[in-house]
Design a protein that fits this description.
Helix content is 9%, strand content 30%. By secondary structure, the chain is mainly beta.
Length: 248
């Protein structure tokens, strides 16, 4: 599962990795939560393009959003058949940039962990998107993050993880015109254990209103034993740029 994640790479760095022509300006986020707008990349007329969509997919056939459960994640094992996802899997696949995600391990209360690439920098979650049209013609673009079973390292914390797409496979996931859903589904697999590291962080992340670099600092000494790689040094607090107005 993926219920909170982080995007801290600069807009320029994300643009270089994902290769879209737009130049969006967005601030670092340390606690992105469901129902908030999230940046993503999709193909538009065969070309990569940037978009903002609400995190929480709403299928086009839904009559009343108030009676429909929020679809934050799409289980990779059922995206080809499940009515809520199968059309998006065929025609509307996207990539969601992130610098890591949170997962909650066992315990009372559950302990949060931060998972990120060992090499640092942005990674890409597999995503699906839909446009819902209301009775008055209003349109809402929404998206979900595709998940799969956890790899062996993360399975000590949780049994699910987001699908991470390697840069060389971006086009395979995105190009719904040339790559059918069954072929793209081959990318739905746990990330290699060598790609990621994780460590315990403060329970402050549990509160959506908290959104600062302190959230991804390793938990204070005396906390739980780290499940994988040794805890890295605490990151320096990011400086907020005045030229990055909030989109969230």
């Amino acid at each position: 599962m993926c219920g909170r994640y982080v995007i801290t790479s600069t807009p320029a760095a994300v643009r270089v990795l994902f290769g879209y022509p737009e130049q969006p300006n967005f601030p670092p986020r340390y606690n992105v939560a469901p129902t908030q707008p999230i940046p993503l990349m999709r193909l538009t007329d065969g070309k990569r393009s940037f978009a903002l969509m609400r995190w929480g997919l709403l299928p086009a056939w839904v009559k009343d959003p108030k009676t429909f459960s929020l679809l934050v994640n799409a289980r990779g094992e059922s995206v080809l058949e499940k009515p809520a996802f199968r059309n998006a899997m065929r025609r509307r696949r996207c990539l969601v940039p992130a610098d890591g995600f949170y997962e909650w391990g066992a315990g009372v209360p559950k302990r949060p962990y931060f998972v990120r690439a060992k090499s640092g920098g942005a990674i890409a979650f597999a995503g699906l998107w839909e446009t819902w049209t209301g009775p008055n013609g209003e349109e809402v673009d929404t998206a979900a993050i595709v998940t799969t079973r956890a790899n062996r390292m993360l399975a000590t914390i949780h049994d699910r993880m987001p699908v991470i797409v390697a840069p060389e496979a971006f086009d395979l996931w995105l190009d719904c015109a040339k790559v059918d859903a069954m072929t793209a589904a081959a990318l739905i697999a746990p990330a290699p254990e060598s790609l990621l590291e994780c460590y315990e962080v403060s329970p402050a992340v549990n509160r959506v209103a908290n959104d600062s670099a302190e959230l991804i600092a390793p938990a204070a000494a005396g906390g739980a034993v780290q499940p994988a790689a040794a805890s890295p040094a605490a990151p320096a607090k990011a400086k907020k740029s005045n030229d990055q107005p909030s989109l969230f």
